Automatic annotation (TrEMBL):
Belongs to the HAD-like hydrolase superfamily. SerB family. Pathway: Amino-acid biosynthesis; L-serine biosynthesis; L-serine from 3-phospho-D-glycerate: step 3/3. One of its GO terms (molecular function) is hydrolase activity. This is Phosphoserine phosphatase. InterPro entries: DUF4072, HAD-like_SerB, HAD-like_sf, HAD_sf, PSP. Keywords: Amino-acid biosynthesis, Hydrolase, Magnesium, Metal-binding, Serine biosynthesis. Its EC number is 3.1.3.3. Gene3D superfamilies: HAD superfamily/HAD-like. Its cofactor is Mg(2+). The gene is serB.
Length: 281
């Protein structure tokens, strides 16, 4: 295997020799100012690399030699805390003074402590009953920001011929705006019921939980005529685990421990564009 090491700031040359030695690999090759690659490494050195990289706030990934981004056909992304920096439902709740209460449920759900996502979402949405729907627009305009590297990652994926899927346990109000803004190919999310300009506290239709996310990835791959092994899935919470398990490559982005442990690759420090550097070998 090859090893790709990345840093959110320019990567000091002082790291090259220690990392190559730790990995029992070839001398480091510079990818760009933020990344190096060490070829022919010993994967059994993972524990030592974990300690070194954690100490220096570096991200590492084992990559198959010769792997190319063009080998894939789809990049599937979670929305909240993955493609964007916020949890939309928490910010909506802030407009009715319930952010702390809703955020606590969100956090427990994403860590996997609340096993029933449907119940978790239903409880949180119920707390929004009576809120003016204009709060959704305010969250989008005032609080929603793309995660670092998001646009560069999407541009690189599209240039390599990959289609894009945004699949979220959040809400269509935001996924549809992002679809238009970022020219995404496919989206799937939950629909908030709005009556007379106010949220009713209910979700319409099937809730997008972990099973639905995984099914959406598989169905999108079928639409594209590719196997799920040719999909890349990015996520941060337990609701993404089944989708990530179906994909050929999974990326835990600033994720909960349970997701980092299950993913092919974890980005704890670099932006989403770190995905592109994995294929520089």
């Amino acid at each position: 295997m090859n090893l790709v090491i990345q840093s959110p700031v320019p990567l000091s040359a002082d790291h090259r020799k220690p990392l190559a030695a730790l990995a029992h690999g070839s001398p480091a090759v510079v990818i760009d100012e933020h990344a190096i690659r060490v070829d022919n490494v010993n994967v059994a050195q993972r524990a030592d690399l974990e300690v070194y990289c954690g100490t220096h706030q570096l991200d590492y990934a084992f990559v198959e030699p010769g792997q190319r981004l063009t080998n894939f056909g789809l990049v599937a992304m979670d929305m909240d805390s993955t493609l964007i920096t916020i949890e939309c439902i928490d910010e909506i709740a802030d407009f009715c003074g319930l952010k702390a209460e809703v955020a606590a449920i969100t956090e427990a759900s994403m860590r996997g402590e609340i096993k029933d996502f449907n119940e978790s979402l239903t409880r949180r949405v119920a707390l929004l009953k009576g809120l003016d729907a204009s709060a959704l627009e305010r969250v989008y305009e005032e609080r929603l920001q793309l995660s670092p590297g998001a646009e560069r990652m999407l541009a690189g994926a599209k240039a390599a011929g990959l289609k894009t899927l945004l699949v979220s346990g959040g809400f269509t109000f935001f996924t549809e705006k992002l679809r238009a803004r970022l020219k995404l190919d496919f989206t799937r999310a939950n629909t908030l019921e709005i009556v007379d300009g106010k949220l009713t506290g209910r979700v319409l239709g099937e809730i997008v939980n972990a099973d639905v996310k995984a099914r959406t990835l598989r169905e999108t791959c079928a639409t594209l005529g590719i196997e799920p092994s040719r999909a890349i899935a990015l996520g941060d919470g337990s609701n993404d685990l089944k989708m990530m398990a179906d994909a050929g490559l999974s990326v835990a982005f600033r994720a909960k421990p349970v997701v980092r442990e299950a993913a092919s690759v974890a980005f704890n420090y670099v932006g989403l564009d770190g995905l592109l550097r994995l294929f520089s070998a």
